Amino acid sequence: MLGHIGLPEKPEARWEWMMARISQRQMNTLFQIAYEILKNKDDTDDVISESLVIAAEKLHKLKDPDKLFSWLYAIVRHEALDYYQKNTVRRAAIETMLERSGSIASNSAESQYITKENRQQVREAVDRLPSPAKEIVLMRIVDNLSFKQIGKLLKMNLYTVHSRYKRTLKSLQRELERSRHEAK
Questions:
Q1: Amino acid 76: pLDDT
Q2: Which of 51, 88, 122, 125 could form a Cys-Cys staple with 76, CB 3.0–4.6 A?
Q3: Rounded distance, CA 11 to CA 67, Å?
Q4: Which of 33, 77, 25 is nearest to 54 (CA)?
Q5: pTM metric for this prediction
Q6: CA distance 135 to 124
C-alpha cells in the first residue's frame, strides 16, 4: 500500500480502488461536464477515459480520499477544455493546410508519389504490429471507436487499452522516423 490513505501500488489496482469509490451518479456528472464542453458523445467518452487514466496514474497525489470526486471533476474539466482547444487548433491547421496545398500545385506527380509512399509506409508499419496493439490502433483510428468501446469489444480494461494505444503510437512514430532517415 502507498501513502497514508492506503492506495495500492499497481496501476490496475489503483484503477479498481478509484472506480469502487465513484458512484454511477458521479460518473454521469463527470460525463455531463465533459459533454457540455465538447458537445460530442465519442469525444466525451475519450476525455472521460483519458481523465480516469490520468487520475489512476496520479492517485498518489490525492491527499484526502473523501475529495476523490471533486479531484476527478477538476481533472475531467481540465482535460475536456484541453481536448477542445487542441482539436479546434488542429482542425483549423488542417483546413489551412488543405487550402494552401490546393493552391500550390499539390496535384503534381511528385507530391502524389510522396503521399502514396507515406501512406504505404504507415500501412506496412501497422501491419507489422502484434495482434492486440494492431487491433486497438485500427479500431481507434480507422473505426473511430472510443477507448471504452474498444475495451468492451476486446474484453480489456480501459486503462490497458489506453496505455497500449499510446505506447503503440509512440512506437509507430519512432519506426516511421527511422525509415525516413534511412531513405535519405
A1: 94
A2: 51
A3: 20
A4: 77
A5: 0.53
A6: 14
